[in-house]
Every structure is written in structure tokens, then in C-alpha cells.
Amino acid sequence: MYKIDTIEFLSKDAEGKTTNHLVFNSVHSLKSHLDDNMFKDGGYVQVEITHEDGEQFSFELKELNDFVYIEEMYKLVDEARKYARQFKVDVKYPSDFKAWMLEQFEHNQLADMCNHGVSGGFSGLIYTKEINDLYDRYHVSLWDMLDEMRDNMGLNSDLELMTHFRDHERVDTDSNFKELVVWACAEEIAFRETDGEYKNEDEEGADDE
User: Fold this and answer.
1) What is the largest CA-CA distance in the chain?
2) Which of 1, 17, 76, 95 has a CA-to-CA distance to 177 between 20 and 30 Å?
3) Chain center to CA of 51
């Protein structure tokens, strides 16, 4: 089993007020401390387990018998962690950002993106971490696209190009900059692929065949 760093034990009354707070270093030592009196009059126990690698699990016990379930669930979690570490997962990504876009979105989703912008919320293009990951993975193809857009518009630099992008004025961090580039390129691909025109379901189905 993975080494446990700490187990925090918080006994609480029915209103959620902490009546006892102890720290253990093993599941066994925690189990030996539990008794039925802790669960009287709506009281319960909150257990927070922290592994040495920083990963945390939090459980609530409403009665003493709950601990049997928690023990079994904790064993399953621990076995899953061990199993995951035995294998190296080889994730294959699309070759470039355009390929990722065409794999991720259907035609009418791209048309929505073209007409309303990425900020409307599209899976994979919402959260800062996922956008930053896309930039880091596809920065070469993203900058190739920026160069092409710059030349098509007859501009002198990619930075000048960026002043034409939606929400460029709010860029004040590295993450914001990556988001600006990814979103702008996503909208450009959406425009090139759809020109903002929608297909009916039959047309989309035919494209998939």
C-alpha cells in the first residue's frame, strides 16, 4: 500500500462543529480510536487521508459500520493506483492543431465557433490548463498559421496581427497569451472549414460515412 503521510480525524456534532481533531499515521490507528459514542445525536466523523506524494482522499462516517466500507473502498483506490503505475500509457495526439480541431468538432460546431467565437464554450477550449496544454503541444503549427494569417492580411508582424484578435487587450499573463493564440487559430480554422454555413443532419451524416 502507498505510504500514508497523515490521517486527519475530525469528530463533529450535528451542526458540523468540530468536537475533536486528531492526527494519525495509519488506518489501523484511526480504526482503534473509533467508537459508537461519536455518532450519537447526529454526530459524524470526517476523515482526510494524505499520501506522501500529496494526493488526498476525504470521507465522512455517519456510523461505526461505515468504516468497513471505507476500508474496502480505500483498498480499491490503492489497488487502482498501483495498477496505473505498472503501465505506461502511450497517448497518440493528432498531428497538428487543425487535425485536432477537425477530430474534436463536427461541422456545425465549427460553424457556431465561426459565427459566435470560441468564448461561447467548446469542449477542450474552455479551461486554462487544457488551452495551455494545446498551445504547448501544437505551438509550431499554431505559429505557422499565425504567419499565414499575417501574410494574408498584409501585416508586418505577428504581434501586429494579434491586435486584430478578439479580446487581445486583456492579455496580461503567459496563460492569457496562449489562450489568445489558440482561440484565434481555432476561429480561423472554423471560418476556413465552414465560412459560417451550417449543414443539415443528412449532409453531416454523409460526411461521416
Assistant:
1) 78
2) 95
3) 22
First-residue to last-residue Cα distance in the chain: 49
CB-based contact 185:147 (threshold 8 Å): no
| pLDDT tens-digit readout, 67-111 | 565 556 556 555 555 554 554 445 678 899 999 999 999 999 999
Model confidence pLDDT, tens digit, residues 168-202: 777 888 888 999 999 999 999 999 999 999 988 76
User: Alpha-carbon dihedral of residues 16, 21, 24, 26, nearest 10 degrees?
Assistant: -20
Measured distance CA(89)–CA(180) in Å, rounded: 31
CB 113 within 8 A of CB 186: yes
Against a cut of 0.70, is the pTM above it?
Answer: no
Q: CA torsion, points 2, 8, 9, 14, in degrees to nearest 10?
A: -120
The b-or-e profile of 32-44 (16+ CB within 10 A means b, else e) is: eebeeebbeeebb
Question: For residues 187 and 103, is the Cβ–Cβ distance under 8 A?
Answer: no
**Separation of alpha carbons 42 and 15, rounded Å:** 8
